[in-house]
User: What shape does this take?
Amino acid sequence: MTLLVKVAIPYGGTCEFRARNLKHVTAWIDAHHGYDISVGTSDRTPFSPAQARNNAARTAGEWDVLLHWDGDTIAHPDAIREAAELAATSNKLVFAANAHTYCDELSTQRFIDTGLWFPAPTDWPDTRTQYRAAGSSKQFDPKSIYRDPSGGILAVSRELWEATGGYCDSLGGDDSYEDLVFFAQAQIFAAGITRVAGMQLHLWHPPAPRVRGANHHHYHQLVRIMARPNAKKCARDYLAQLGHTVP
Assistant: This one.
């Protein structure tokens, strides 16, 4: 049976570099996969990634596996196909990589202009070991490689999507790390999380301000709930209090 795979991209704002990246990423998807692409946005201020992801999934229509694909990220086509197949058969949330490179402005523009790929990593302060705060959970190594990325390109089966109710998009401006709550949902209501081997490449753009919102608290609360014998019921009730319905 042939899998029906589609792509959902969250996007918003007027940043010229993000628009450039989105144009390149959608062309990459078309050239290597030919998947139908649905772009979702948010009508909230600040921008709600969770709402944009849910809107993209909704407008995508019918699908067996949906790739939640950030508009600034690419990965090897084989890793994408492997992630989609694994999502379909495992009922797990599948990351299409186990490492993530944040590329600098020059290498990103060269790649987009020429197709030649010799990436240089970003020089953000938190990519350098000597700048890490004591006890920091950052997992950048000195070459700006982020191990076990928490975003980028994720493969989600229809079964998992319906079991979790999608992203919790009722947190307003506090959902700038919306992925955390969804990952916990996948662990509680589906078969968990896994990764395929590979490197995601993050195209440069000016960093957006991130809100360290209440969803960090919600995520840790859901992690505590995982250990309970009635975890599904407790998590369903807890998410309902946040305005999110799990079937």
Observations:
- The first helix runs from residue 16 to 32.
- The beta strands are 5-10, 36-40, 65-69, 73-74, 93-95, 99-102, 145-147, 153-157, 193-195, 199-202.
- The longest strand covers residues 5-10.
- The chain has a mean pLDDT of 89.
